[in-house]
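// run 5 | inverse folding | seed 20
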């Protein structure tokens, strides 16, 4: 059987917020989806959770897999309670289409 190419039909969406937009829950930082803006500066209402993968950046540094949990309503960063409130948070969600 011949191998077939799987087309890289991917699109990504980036969302931006500051750590100060979140609330501390134990040692975690929880940031509501509504605190994020898209590339156009438009506030979003929810995350589309049908993503294929994601990359989380805190203060410009990519974070390890598993450090965050994403639901349609919020982003939870494990251990994020220690972040500086001014730290920029960038969430890049990649979708198949």
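// decoded
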């Amino acid at each position: 059987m011949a191998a077939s190419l799987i087309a890289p039909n991917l699109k990504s969406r980036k969302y931006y917020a500051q750590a100060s937009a979140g609330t501390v829950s134990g040692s975690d930082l929880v940031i509501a989806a509504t605190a994020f803006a898209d590339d156009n500066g438009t506030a979003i209402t929810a995350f589309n959770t049908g993503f294929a993968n994601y990359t989380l950046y805190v203060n410009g540094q990519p974070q390890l897999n598993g450090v965050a949990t994403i639901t349609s309503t919020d982003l939870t960063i494990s251990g994020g309670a220690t972040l500086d409130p001014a730290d920029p948070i960038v969430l890049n969600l990649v979708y198949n289409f």
